[in-house]
Each structure stands twice: as structure tokens, then as C-alpha cells.
Amino acid sequence: MQMQNKWKRYMVPVMAAALAAAVALTGCNNSSEAPGGADDAAVLNIDGHDISREEYNYYFLNEKLRLDGGDDAFWSTATEEQKQLKERAESGLKEFYAMKKLADEAGIPSDGALAEEVDAEIANLVEQFGGQETFDEILASNYMTEDLYRMLSLESFRSIELFKKTMGDEIKKSAPDRFIRAAHILVAFNENAVDTEAEHTRAKERAEEVLAKVEAGEDFFQLVAEYGEDPGMVDNLDGYYFTEGQMVQPFYEGALALKEGETSGLVETDYGYHIIKRLPMEDAYIEDNLMTFAAESHYNAFTDKINEVMETMELREGASYDSISLENTLKENQKNA
Questions:
Q1: In what order do the strands lie in the sheet containing 49-51?
Q2: Burial class (CB in 10 A: 0-12, 13-18, 19+), 79
Q3: CATH code that applies to domain 180-280
Q4: When you count CB atoms within 10 A of the terminal residue's CB, does the N or C end of the chain come out lower?
């Protein structure tokens, strides 16, 4: 009944999830070769950072794949996209280094716990994919080596910590105005009942018995454990935190109508009959789950900060910059087809 938080596209993706999703596209990637051939010379310099061919290729080839879905025929007519391809790749690189710069300025470490988390992530992926050789092959098919993956993954974790540090106070301040915390006792409808009307009557009678116990002052959470039929609630007696649209509307409205500490009468939804108890928000929980409580406005404000830094960044082309091109990539793919 609760909505998972969405991490926005402008941020560096959480790499393990991105890689797992990319495995499904592996068959679409015609070549993991570097367009223009291997070269250690910097392709680009962004704000003092030398961008290697490997790093540039990762952004360039993934933008290509995002646009053509692995079908090179797309480019026979996509003239505007051809013009934009390098620009899109370089925008992604600038975003990456803008966030890295802000993370450095914010004092977010690139070693210690975050580096250990990356090590653990890589170890888990190696095991998940059946060994180092397969892991390396999957990385290569998605235009990465382990070193590049490690760097991108570390900065992914740092970008999340940067977002929390930058927007945390605003998120904590606004959360109580946007979210409700509530527990409930659900007497559920039997979805397989032949006689729907009789099933609803049975559930209502059962719910009324439980409501009488609540109104008589019996411990609400003991009643949840004894009568509740929402597994998520029974296993989570701290209750749910939610905002409008994350719960079915009658449940949301029933909880919203309560003051902290109050319990509702019977609230009917498609799931059954609910008895809702509104609970106080807990600052410690919000602190530990900032991403869950972030609103669109917080992402937009963070984006503005990233864009401000990006606008100050200087790009200088390296000697091998022109060798990376759509034309060379298509030729390489055709040769390997």
C-alpha cells in the first residue's frame, strides 16, 4: 500500500540496480569496443578533470543505446539525435562532476563506510553473476570495467549522501505537513468468497467486535497482533508513514480526519474494514528515511544547485575527441555484426 521512493534521472543511478537492469539489454549492445580504438589520452577535460576514453565511451554509448534501443538503423533518419549525441553524453558527464564537486565541498568522504559499501556491492554482484569472469563480461557489454564501475558506484552513493545533506533540513521541516503516520486493524474481505454480500456482512460483524474492544480501552497494538489481517501491519507495529496517493483514498481520508492518538470507527475500502489509529511522527524515523520523505520540490531545488555548478564548468576537447563519433561506432558495430 506504500509507494517506493523514486530516485530522479538527473542523479547518478544506484549502479547495482542499473547494472542488473542493463543485463536485459546486453543482447542489444552490438559492441563494447571503444569508438576510434583504445587510447589513454584524455578525450575531454571538464573543469580540470581529464575524462578518459573509457569514461567518455560509457556516457556516449549509453546515450546511443538509450536513443536507438540497440538498432543502428535508427540513425539513418535521426539527424537531430545525431547532432545531440555528444552533447547529451557531455551533459551527463557534467552532471556527474558537478555532483562530485559539491560532494567534495560538503566533506562527504570517498573512503571509509561508502567505499566499503561499494566493495560489498561488487562482491555480491560477482556472486550473483556466478564469478568474476562473467561479471567482467557483463560490465564490458555495458561499456565498463570494474574500475569504472567502482568509481561510478561510489559517486552514486556520495550523490545520495549529498542530497540528504543538502536538502535534509527542508525535508524534515516539511514532512509533518505532507505525511501521516497511522496504524490500523484490518478485517479483510475474502476475495474468493462466492457470496460477496454475505462475506461483507461477516467481515463487518467481525470488525465491529474488534472496534468494541478498541473503544473499551484494550491495547490497540495487542488487537493488531490478535485480529489484524494486513501482514505488513502485523510485522510492523510502528505503523505506516504515507502521503496522499500512497494509500487508497478512504483510508487516507479516514486517517487525515483523526488527531494524533485518536482511533477511527470502521473505514471500508476494497480490502475490508479498517480501524485506524493516528500516531505521532517520529523525527528519528524521518532522519533515517529522508529519501522516502523527499518531495518533488526538494529534487527540483537540488537540481537547481547542480545546474548552477554545471553552468560554471569549462569543457576542453582533447586530441582524440574527434575520433569518438557515431560514424565510427556504427562502422565498428557493422564490422562486429
A1: 49-51, 44-46, 315-317
A2: exposed
A3: 3.10.50.40
A4: C
Q: Which architecture does CATH list for 15-175+295-336?
A: Orthogonal Bundle (1.10)
Q: Which residues contact 217 (CB under 8 A, 6 or more apart)?
A: none
What pLDDT is attached to residue 234?
77
The answer to whether 15-175+295-336 and 180-280 have equal CATH topology is: no
pTM metric for this prediction: 0.81
**How many angstroms separate the CA atoms of 111 and 256, rounded?**
44
Taking only the tens place, the pLDDT of each residue in 263-283 is 999 999 999 999 999 999 999
Question: Within a 10 A sphere around the Cβ of 110, how many other Cβ atoms?
Answer: 15
Produce one character per residue of 308-317: b if its CB has 16 or more CB atoms within 10 Å, e if not: ebbeebeeee
Give the start-to-end residue ranges of the domains of the chain.
15-175+295-336, 180-280
